[in-house]
Structure formats: structure tokens, C-alpha cells
Amino acid sequence: MLNISEIIQTIKQLIDVRVQLVKDEISEQFASVLSRIFLLLLMATFSVMILLFLSFSLAFYLSELMYSTYKGFLYVGLLYLLVFVLIYFLKDAKSIVDSFQKFLKHFIFRGKREE
Predict the structure, then answer these.
(1) Measured at the alpha carbon of residue 72, what is the angle toward residues 67 and 76, in degrees to the nearest 5?
(2) In Å, how far are 4, 15, 60, 75, 93 from 64, measured between CA atoms?
(3) How far is it, in rounded angstroms, from Cα 15 to Cα 22?
(4) Which sequence spans correspond to the domains of the chain?
(5) Transmembrane ranges (predicted)?
(6) What is the pLDDT averaged over residues 41-62?
(7) Could you give the CA distance from residue 87 to residue 44 in angstroms, rounded to a whole number?
(8) What is the pLDDT of residues 4-42, one digit of tens each?
């Protein structure tokens, strides 16, 4: 005959193992998401640095062409103002927001792309 206490003990052990497997899987996924977010932030930081140095280079180049330091920086500033206004007017465009959301979802959570 089967001993009821052994069956209960076996079921408890199976549940404990399953709970531990779920905990391990969740912690692995959490670490993976955090590492991808960190990578995204690192890429954003370097992108900002690249943009900054390219902006200075363009401003100094335009200054050389126009023989006026302030005009080069003024034109680069106006260029950024134009880009800002363009982004401001396009901020509610559904296609742009959807594509950005899909990119972030895929990059951070490794979700399947919906076509």
C-alpha cells in the first residue's frame, strides 16, 4: 500500500521544485530586461555625445565658411530648433508612435514583431 504521508511529501517537493523553477525563470528574465535597458541607455549616452561633437564640428565649420563665429553656432541652433518643431508637430502621428513602441517592445522584451 501507498503511504499517504509519502505521497503528500512528494507532492510538496514537486511544488517546491516548480516554484523554484518559476523563480529562477523570472529572475533570469528580469536580469535580461535590465541588461537590455542598460545597453539602451548606454547607446543613448554615446549617441548624445556623438551628436554633441558633430554639432560643434558643424558649427565651427560654418563659422569658418562665414567668417563669423556666432553665425555658425546660430545656424546649428536654428537647425536644432527646426528639428524640434518638426518633432513637436509629429509627436501625435500614430505611425511614428506605433513604430517606436514596437521597436522598444522588441528591443527590451524581445517580443515578436507584429507585422
Answers:
(1) 165
(2) 90, 73, 6, 13, 39
(3) 11
(4) 12-109
(5) 37-61, 73-90
(6) 96
(7) 18
(8) 888 899 999 999 999 999 999 999 988 988 998 999 999
Q: How far is CA 80 from CA 34, 73, 89, in A?
A: 32, 11, 14
DSSP the chain: ---HHHHHHHHHHHHHHHHHHHHHHHHHHHHHHHHHHHHHHHHHHHHHHHHHHHHHHHHHHHHHHHT-HHHHHHHHHHHHHHHHHHHHHHTT-HHHHHHHHHHHHHHHH-PPPP-
Grid cell of 32 as nine digits? 535580461
C-alpha cell belonging to residue 77: 541652433
Q: Are 71 and 58 in contact (CB under 8 A)?
A: no
Which set of grid coordinates corresponds to residue 98? 506605433
pLDDT of amino acid 81: 97
pLDDT at residue 19, as a whole number:
94
pTM of the entire predicted model: 0.67
